[in-house]
């Protein structure tokens, strides 16, 4: 007679269709991330910006997450996850469509505004979708289920980068000119107008596609998931969460992780520029990074069946630290290979930190806690800006001076390295103080 407990199902057949629909959102915000990263370099060239000025693209993009995550959570305290998702898709579409008037005005701030509104929508989507996925089944498989859903995020990343590379970067006239700033003003105006239209097009098409997805969600019935009883105040809930070390330290881990991810993906173009590799060719390296990210996410999700989340997070972070050191101190193409390789080890981090931080929380706490974790995406706004300032330290180039014997662009990757050190510590902390303790108790 087999007395062993029944193994919990990761995704029940009853909620398979809603799970697939919500999981598709992970690819959608991955697309937005990937199609936007190369725009930093594109705007820098066509609008003649410095590295730190061009980083306002990321400041607007990830700043929108920070500003809207908490309002999104407050909204979903009163309304359903589905309603939050619909609001998110709507704002996502509006932000993307704002690129149409932005291209007409040719104002950098207008493009940034479009990205800012777009990420209002992404904040709603992530604040709703992540805890919704966690709630779609047994708590014991919640982190595994979230990693499964997050495995589709890299598909969006690859699609977004493909669009950016094939339909934007390859068609930018300014990228074919070695010294764009040296052109006559009349020539620059013509090229600028053409290039901004090229940048505009994928966002406008994306906005129209999102309107169709909005209709699809309206037409489908989604499972409800609500706590019973009265809801405590949001301040009280935050107070409880901040006393939860696993959660509070997890928010900080998420801040530094997102910062590290965006730095590694944004400045791969500047790193390539320093070794005389074009933006289009650099796009292929980023594509390789996204493929490794996809593979790493799949392998990481599989490994979670056999090892604890904290331990695996620590191990992946240690490898990321080694790669970041290689990026800093090994110049040339080999350093670029290390930069690409980091993506494999980053792949596990976001959903694993997310799942660990929200583990054992009530649904009400998860809704508010999810907002804190999405607000943590502000790391993607602040840290790339700081890295851009390091790169600009010697001038608007990427290798104007050397720091510790390496070009400034190489040295700037000290920021991701420090981020991975903290994440490794967090993984070790979770493994030593929570997971080992839990296993011992269960024995």
TrEMBL record:
Positions of transmembrane segments: 15-35, 55-76, 83-102, 146-168, 202-219, 247-268, 274-300, 312-330, 336-358, 370-391, 403-425
Example of a GO cellular component annotation carried by this entry: plasma membrane
InterPro entries (alphabetical): Lfuc_symporter_FucP, MFS, MFS_trans_sf, MFS_TsgA-like
CDD domains: MFS_FucP_like
Membrane topology: Multi-pass membrane protein
Annotated localization: Cell inner membrane
Pfam families: MFS_1
Chief location: membrane
SUPFAM superfamilies per UniProt: MFS general substrate transporter
Gene Ontology MF terms: fucose:proton symporter activity
Superkingdom classification of source: Bacteria
Keywords of this entry: Cell membrane, Membrane, Transmembrane, Transmembrane helix
Name of this chain's protein: MFS transporter, FHS family, L-fucose permease
């Amino acid at each position: 007679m087999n007395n062993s407990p029944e193994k919990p199902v990761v995704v029940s057949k009853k909620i398979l269709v809603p799970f697939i629909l919500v999981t598709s959102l992970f690819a959608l915000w991955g697309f937005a991330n990937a199609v936007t990263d190369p725009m930093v370099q594109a705007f820098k060239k066509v609008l003649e910006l410095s590295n730190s000025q061009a980083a306002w693209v990321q400041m607007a993009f990830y700043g929108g997450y920070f500003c809207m995550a908490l309002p999104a959570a407050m909204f979903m305290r009163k309304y359903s996850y589905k309603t939050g998702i619909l609001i998110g898709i709507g704002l996502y579409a509006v932000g993307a469509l704002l690129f149409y008037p932005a291209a007409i005005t040719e104002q950098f701030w207008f493009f940034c505004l479009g990205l800012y509104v777009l990420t209002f929508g992404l904040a709603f989507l992530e604040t709703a979708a992540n805890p919704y996925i966690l709630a779609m089944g047994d708590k014991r498989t919640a982190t595994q289920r979230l990693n499964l859903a997050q495995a589709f995020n890299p598909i969006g990343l690859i699609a977004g980068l493909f669009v950016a590379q094939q339909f934007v970067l390859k068609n930018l006239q300014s990228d074919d000119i070695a010294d764009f700033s040296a052109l006559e003003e009349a020539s620059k105006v013509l090229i600028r107008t053409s290039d901004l239209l090229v940048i505009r097009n994928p966002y406008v098409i994306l906005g129209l596609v999102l309107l169709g997805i909005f209709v699809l969600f309206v037409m489908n019935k989604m499972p409800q998931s609500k706590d019973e009883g009265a809801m405590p105040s949001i301040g009280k809930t935050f107070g409880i969460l901040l006393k939860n070390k696993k959660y509070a330290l997890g928010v900080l881990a998420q801040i530094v992780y997102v910062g590290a991810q965006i730095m590694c993906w944004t400045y791969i173009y500047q790193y390539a520029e320093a070794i005389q590799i074009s933006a289009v060719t650099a796009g292929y390296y980023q594509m390789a990074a996204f493929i490794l990210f996809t593979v790493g996410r799949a392998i990481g999700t599989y490994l979670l069946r056999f090892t604890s989340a904290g331990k695996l997070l620590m191990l992946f972070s240690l490898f990321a630290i080694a790669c970041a050191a290689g990026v800093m101190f090994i110049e040339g193409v080999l350093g670029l290979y290390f930069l690409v390789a980091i993506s494999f080890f980053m792949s596990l981090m976001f959903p694993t930190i997310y799942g660990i931080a929200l583990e054992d929380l009530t649904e009400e706490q998860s809704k508010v806690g999810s907002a804190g974790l999405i607000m943590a995406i502000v790391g993607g706004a602040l840290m790339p800006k700081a890295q851009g300032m390091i790169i600009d330290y010697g001038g608007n180039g990427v290798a104007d001076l050397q720091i510790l014997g390496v070009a400034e662009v190489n040295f700037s990757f000290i920021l991701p390295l420090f981020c991975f050190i903290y994440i490794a510590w967090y993984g070790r902390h979770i493994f030593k103080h929570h997971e080992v303790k839990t296993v011992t108790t269960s024995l």
